[in-house]
Amino acid sequence: MKLILGQTLSFLSDPFAGDPEASALWDRRSGVVVDDTTGTIVEIGPADTLKRLWSNAVVEDHGDALILPGFIDAHAHYPQTGIIASWGKRLIDWLNTYTFPEEARFGDAGYAAEVASRYFDLVLSNGTTTTVSFCTIHPESVGAYFAEAQKRGMRVFGGKTCMDRNAPDDLRDTAQSAYDDSKRLLARWHGQGRLSYVITPRFAPTSTPEQLEALGSLWAENPTCLMQTHLSEQTEEIEWVMGMFPEATDYTDIYDRFGLLREGALMGHAIHLSARERARLKEVGASLIHCPTSNTFIGSGLFDMAGLRAEGQKVGLATDTGGGSSFSMLRTMAATYEIGQLRGTPLHPAHLLWLATAGSAEAIGMGQTIGRLAPDYEADLVVLDLASTPGIEQRAGRAETIWEQVFPTIMMGDDRAVAATYVAGQRV
Ligand code: GUN
Ligand code: ZN
Fold this sequence. Notes:
Catalyzes the hydrolytic deamination of guanine, producing xanthine and ammonia. Residues 67-428 form the Amidohydrolase-related domain. Pathway: Purine metabolism; guanine degradation; xanthine from guanine: step 1/1. Keywords: Hydrolase, Metal-binding, Zinc. It is an enzyme of class 3 (hydrolase). By secondary structure, the protein is an alpha/beta fold. It has 2 domains: 2-69 and 372-427, Urease, subunit C, domain 1 (Roll), CATH 2.30.40.10; 71-363, Metal-dependent hydrolases (TIM Barrel, Alpha-Beta Barrel). 39% of the residues lie in helices and 23% in strands. It contains 15 helices and 16 strands. Strands 5, 6, 7, 8, 9, 10, 11, 12 and 13 form a 9-stranded parallel sheet that branches. The radius of gyration is 21 Å and the shape is globular. Bound molecules: guanine and zinc ion (ZN). Guanine (GUN) is lined by residues 77, 91, 95, 99, 202-203, 230, 233, 294, 298, 320, 323.
């Protein structure tokens, strides 16, 4: 047994559903008891009580630092690690100029393994313990991702990106090979320990109707998998795709027609949606994944967080590495706040922290397993130093509430704020 001490914030309810400050329990001197053989949380409570009850436990005392569930990045492209922060393009040009040439290298299993290892080093140093990633069209890129996560004991999600048109020759599969390769990879990795396979059509413009149909069938045959794709990220993209699927009512309807819209669908971006699309997404229970640093970096638009949550949509939070400009979920929360401000709907720190933990967990169907500090949840944790730089420290020093104390770290913090990361109860 291990007893991890510090401040704790535990969400009891969805902060969008009522008073955000009443949605979480804060304890200034608290502890999390972790069973390091099962990797789960046994108990959370006052530090002194737990020290007495668990006197044989190994104590790791983080002082005033804040213990939270590890961050959950609900949409990323690990193969784009090497081209993050590439200058000056909008989506389609950015894909063709920077992304596709880099993704073409992932047929080389050695290169894929090297990048996967670097990627997980980066996300863990930023306090992210679960990632949901696109790989490339190459099965090697999927093997590299899952093998590396397995080595580290992480709960991760991912899948082979499928594209059979509007991509370079060396980055296209076919409807049949996408189905066959995805099926084989799914059988190999889905449910292996903490790994889950995600059926992954990149987005409608890079798939033929035949490929979308094949992947819809694969999903129907494997209903416990998630499905991830992109939806309505840029206006040019929407015009382009509607020209390819003239019979569809709108972009959402394209996925719907091929059996790719139901609960468990993770729709990246989802910025430019009509009222009909919003109603349909809500009706089926799909999840919308907000990628704020990407949406400002590539110039895509301002996601309607407040409106979408108010109407009861499931929303997760993500970096969208490397269209997103950061590996950090702290920076991602800050960008979420900034976009909320630009829309005239300021978000409370409770909203931001919930989105990066329990909210993303619910969006990926893991709300009973990760993303909360509660008994029986998996012990993936991040410990935040709330005074990690002089600028943050002088502001947090004036705080009168935990929310005021944590907000400077959300807005100005980076990997220096991450005092420790735990995966299944083990410090990494
Ligand atoms: N749409 C299709 N592929 C991508 C991608 O790799 N990144 C982003 N941001 N949008 C996409
Ligand atoms: Zn993406």
